[in-house]
């Protein structure tokens, strides 16, 4: 059966090029905030934090104060890489008896065994202790140059303005409307009049209010970020959480500490790659690249043999992940993650992934603070006795995969959103740049495949013959056109430093209408 969408159109997104800094993010407004911070004299960390906070106001269903994340920083002069882990943690008061397994499979990101009432997927029992704010505050304290309060102010201004209503806003709110209407505070914010917001027919820009979020951001600027965990804001937050029925307590908040960890560093050909260690996808990236390194990439451009190598390597790496780390295959839900990358004029780089996990996280907006909370408990396997089973005070397995790679010619910082589709995207783009010496714009325009842990390979409809036919002869495949929604591929963003001409480049996923790179203004 033929689909309704055009197959003859091709989208392009040009990479920006400058000798100054660049910020790439999944929302252009947030990227512009970071670029302005660079122009004001801030470094890559300062710009990343400001852009990161802005993302929480520009696309609140993806990430924000109620979530968690990871960050990699590369010092442009020394080459030293620092990793920050501020992932979510299960409450110490969590009771595993609250998550009884029933027949069937969950209907969201991960096809775990189903839990009664999907309480691990949405609602108050799905919430984990948020680490986001402590993580970016730690990065600011260790490596930033500007006061934290000054980095919050652009996000306050955006939150006061409200969420701009365009067709993409309408689309994303509509996809979650059925869940959002279950929670009065969430419906009040995102479903005015009980319906998803739509752009004004006149074409005039309109905005959706973010109610109490501006006040909460102002408290963070005034009280300091630690107040979210131990101050007046923490008291309000604990009261909010108790009111909606979450097990997260004031003690959980006070105990939370983001941490620095040694990055996972390994070689790939003539390049060094830095990734997150531990429960993130860095070790699986290392495994996939080590398998790819055993093969020779011939020709000037990826051919059918290259894609056979990508698929075989990713399948084997995922098989190991599934067997040893407690991960499982993707479900039908949409990941709620955002990624940004920064390079400043000195060559420092930041790679930051932040998330609420599912789209709109727990789907619960807290009544007093206006914070949209995560559903981090869904990362856990609800069945007991597994490596990644639900437990009180435990950190879950995560698919976040920021990476910084370097050889004699380039430095590349890349990451993506998209759940378990992140790793295949990062792996292939690294190969496009490192093995085939593509420009950043070429690498992002290059069609990809997706291998996310099951046997089926998703093949871009834009891949040319004989690549699809060759893959189909060796693996079960499906041909899928990249599209805005639902998208069967990840949404990567990246910055690159060309060591030969000392220019910086930035770009973002072509199909995403908001994702973009913004250069540091020339008058900075």
Write up what this structure looks like.
The chain is α+β, with helices and mostly antiparallel strands and 524 residues long. It has 15 helices and 21 strands. Strand 19 and strand 20 form a beta hairpin. It is globular, with a radius of gyration of 22 Å. About 1% of the residues have low confidence.
Describe the structure in brief.
It contains 15 helices and 21 strands. By secondary structure, it is α+β, with helices and mostly antiparallel strands. It has two domains: 16-162 and 210-519, 4-Layer Sandwich (Glutamine Phosphoribosylpyrophosphate, subunit 1, domain 1); 164-206, no CATH class.
Keywords:
524 residues; alpha+beta; Glutamine Phosphoribosylpyrophosphate, subunit 1, domain 1; 2 domains; seven-stranded antiparallel β-sheet; 32% helix
């Amino acid at each position: 059966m033929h689909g309704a969408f055009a197959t003859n159109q091709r989208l392009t997104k040009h990479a920006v090029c400058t000798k100054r800094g660049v910020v790439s993010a999944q929302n252009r407004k947030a990227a512009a905030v970071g670029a302005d911070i660079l122009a004001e004299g801030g470094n890559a960390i300062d710009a990343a934090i400001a852009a990161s906070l802005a993302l929480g106001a520009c696309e609140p269903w993806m990430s924000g104060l109620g979530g968690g994340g990871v960050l990699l920083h590369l010092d442009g002069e020394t080459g030293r890489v620092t990793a920050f882990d501020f992932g979510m943690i299960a409450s110490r008061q969590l009771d595993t008896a609250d998550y009884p397994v029933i027949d069937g499979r969950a209907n969201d990101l991960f096809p775990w065994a189903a839990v009664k009432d999907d309480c691990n997927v949405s609602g108050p029992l799905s919430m984990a202790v948020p680490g986001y704010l402590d993580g970016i505050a730690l990065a600011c304290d260790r490596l930033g140059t500007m006061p934290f309060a000054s980095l919050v102010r652009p996000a306050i201004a955006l939150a006061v303005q409200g969420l701009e209503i365009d067709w993409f806003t309408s689309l994303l709110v509509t996809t979650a409307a059925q869940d959002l209407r279950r929670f009065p505070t969430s419906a009040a914010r995102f479903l005015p009049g009980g319906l998803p917001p739509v752009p004004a027919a006149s074409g005039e820009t309109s905005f959706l209010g973010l109610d109490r979020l501006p006040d909460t951001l102002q408290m963070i600027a005034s009280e300091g970020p630690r107040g979210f965990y131990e101050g007046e804001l923490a008291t309000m937050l604990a009261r909010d959480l108790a009111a909606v029925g979450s097990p997260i307590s004031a003690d959980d908040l006070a105990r939370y500490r983001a941490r620095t960890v040694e990055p996972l560093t390994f070689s790939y050909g003539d390049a060094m790659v830095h990734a997150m260690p531990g429960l993130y996808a860095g070790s699986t990236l290392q495994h996939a690249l080590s398998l790819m390194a055993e093969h020779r990439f011939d020709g000037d451009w990826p051919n059918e043999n290259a894609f056979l190598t990508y698929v075989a390597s990713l399948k084997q790496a995922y098989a190991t992940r599934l067997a040893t780390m407690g991960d499982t295959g993707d479900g039908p839900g949409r990941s709620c993650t955002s990624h940004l990358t920064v390079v400043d004029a000195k060559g420092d780089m930041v790679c930051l992934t932040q998330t609420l996990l599912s789209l709109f996280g727990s789907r619960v907006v807290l009544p007093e603070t206006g914070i949209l909370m995560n559903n981090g408990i869904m990362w856990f396997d609800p069945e007991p006795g597994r490596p990644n089973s639900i437990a009180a005070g435990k950190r879950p397995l995560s698919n976040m995969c920021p990476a910084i790679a370097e050889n004699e010619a380039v430095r590349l910082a890349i990451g993506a959103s998209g759940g378990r589709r992140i790793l295949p995207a990062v792996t292939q783009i690294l190969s496009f740049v490192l093995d085939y010496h593509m420009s950043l714009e070429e690498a992002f325009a290059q069609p990809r495949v997706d291998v996310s842990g099951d046997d089926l390979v998703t093949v871009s409809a834009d891949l040319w013959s004989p690549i699809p036919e060759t893959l189909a002869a060796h693996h079960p495949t499906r041909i899928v056109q990249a599209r805005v929604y639902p998208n069967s591929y990840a949404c990567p963003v990246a910055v690159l430093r060309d060591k030969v001409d000392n220019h910086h480049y930035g770009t973002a996923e072509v199909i995403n209408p908001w994702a973009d790179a913004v250069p540091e203004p020339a008058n900075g």
